[in-house]
Design a protein that fits this description.
Blueprint (H helix, E strand, L loop, with lengths): L2 E9 L4 E9 L8 E9 L2 H6 L17 E9 L9 E5 L14 E4 L4 E3 L6 H23 L9 E3 L5 H12 L4 E5 L5 H7 L1 E6 L16 E6 L3 H8 L2 E9 L13 H6 L2 E4 L7 H11 L11 E5 L3 H9 L6 E5 L2
Parallel strand pairs: 8-9, 8-11, 9-10, 11-12, 12-13, 14-15
Antiparallel strand pairs: 1-2, 3-4, 3-6, 3-15, 4-5, 5-7
Bound molecules: the ligand C=CC(=O)SCCNC(=O)CCNC(=O)[C@H](O)C(C)(C)COP(=O)(O)OP(=O)(O)OC[C@H]1O[C@@H](n2cnc3c(N)ncnc32)[C@H](O)[C@@H]1OP(=O)(O)O and 1,4-dihydronicotinamide adenine dinucleotide.
């Protein structure tokens, strides 16, 4: 039986291990489509899946990787045929179902998105869950009426995956982008992506969060959460909105009702994982066309063997932009 390489995490009462192992097709979970994975990517959630108490992985041994893109090698699902290029992100992938850090994956056809014209498999993974989340955030804000004329849009955690892609997409769409980062060395990177103003983490995370503060931004894309989200809510302009997707800055949000009831501010929750397939397909089409970000400035490529270092770095907030994992 043919064997292949995968990054496997295992947790027993005695120890936690993580590393590249040789697997066979019989090790893969059930599913109707087998994919030769060409690229995967590194997301914050994958970082959590690679540590003992990340609360992502439920059963061990396990292959993490919430994103993958590759070519169908066999299919019992009439919608997919050998040779089709596909993307899979979210659902149970890399959480309860073996994920993308593997040369082969067996998946449910319901989770697969045909690779849209205008994207390569590598570009699809440079976007990945992070870019999909940034695009979904922009889509939800625009559904609520956001247009460039409304005023500047803030992106928090701006050098990260969601953040970098949001800055690039918003700037290409004509928005005036303010980007906040804790990395003093990355201001030029953010300006190159299209940010007009670069703020520090402290600028957007107040020591004392006021119920209402000076109105600054028409909207915000926020993958940070925590005290940053509470501060940003108090500074959103009348009728504006914040699309929150993440928790790198913490899960407790010490806000009040005031921004919501006195300024009509909306808080939009962004979930990429169970995003319905019809909307998912529309967002990927946009990512391949009018929302396609400038990926080459953002992407960095690694091998399966370099994953442990990248996963540790994303948890320390040290990765810049997007990291794709090459499996071919
Ligand atoms: C790409 C996406 C992301 O990056 S999202 C950010 C990464 N995700 C996380 O950090 C979440 C990690 N999980 C946790 O911290 C915990 O599971 C929890 C705080 C979300 C909930 O913990 P708790 O111990 O309070 O409850 P349970 O784990 O028993 O779950 C209660 C209830 O919620 C359902 N649930 C759990 N996780 C999720 C999820 N990710 N999405 C949707 N629903 C979830 C779980 O099934 C339980 O429901 P029930 O009907 O009672 O079975
Ligand atoms: N809701 C959803 O469907 C999704 C949620 N997410 C969440 O979004 C967040 C970002 O994900 P990625 O872009 O993949 O991660 P990333 O690590 O690439 O980006 C996170 C950014 O936050 C910054 N950061 C870290 N600690 C911080 C702090 N205390 N205060 C302010 N900034 C801080 C980092 O420096 C980095 O720039 C994560 O919490 C992730 O779980 C990501 C994708 C989908």
């Amino acid at each position: 039986m043919p064997t292949f390489q995968a990054f496997v995490v295992n947790k027993t009462e005695a120890e936690f291990t993580a590393g590249v192992e040789t697997l066979s097709m019989d090790d893969l979970p059930e599913g109707d489509v087998v994919v030769r994975v060409h690229y995967s990517s590194v997301n914050y959630k994958d970082g959590l899946a690679s540590i003992p108490d990340g609360k992502i992985v439920k059963t061990y041994p396990f292959v993490p990787g919430i994103d993958l893109a590759g070519i169908v090698v066999s299919s019992n699902d009439a919608r997919f045929r050998e040779g089709d290029e596909v993307i899979a992100t979210g659902y149970e992938i890399g959480v309860t179902h073996f994920g993308g850090y593997s040369e082969y994956a067996r998946l449910h056809g319901d989770w697969l998105v045909p690779l849209p014209k205008g994207l390569t498999l590598r570009e699809a993974m440079a976007i990945g869950t992070a870019g999909f989340t940034a695009a979904l955030s922009i889509h939800r804000l625009e559904e609520l009426g956001l247009v460039p004329e409304r005023g500047p849009v803030l992106v928090t955690g701006a050098t990260g995956g969601v953040g970098s892609l949001a800055v690039s997409m918003l700037a290409k769409r004509g928005y005036t982008v303010a980007a906040s980062t804790g990395k003093a060395t990355e201001h030029d990177y953010l300006r190159a992506l299209g940010a007009k103003e670069v703020l520090t983490r402290e600028d957007v995370t107040a020591e004392r969060i006021r119920p209402l503060d000076k109105q600054r931004w028409a909207a915000a894309v926020d993958p940070v959460g925590g005290r940053t989200l509470a501060t940003v809510l108090s500074r959103i302009r009348y009728g504006g909105a914040v699309a929150v997707s993440g928790l790198t800055g913490g899960v407790e949000v010490p806000t009040t009702v005031h921004p919501f009831i006195l300024r009509g501010v909306s808080l939009l929750g962004i979930d990429s994982v169970y995003c319905p397939m019809d909307l998912r397909l529309r967002i990927w089409e946009q990512l391949a066309s009018d929302l396609k970000p400038d990926l080459e400035q953002i992407v960095h490529e690694i091998s399966l063997h370099e994953l442990p270092g990248a996963l540790a770095r994303i948890l320390r907030g040290e990765l810049r932009g997007r990291t794709v994992v090459r499996l071919v």
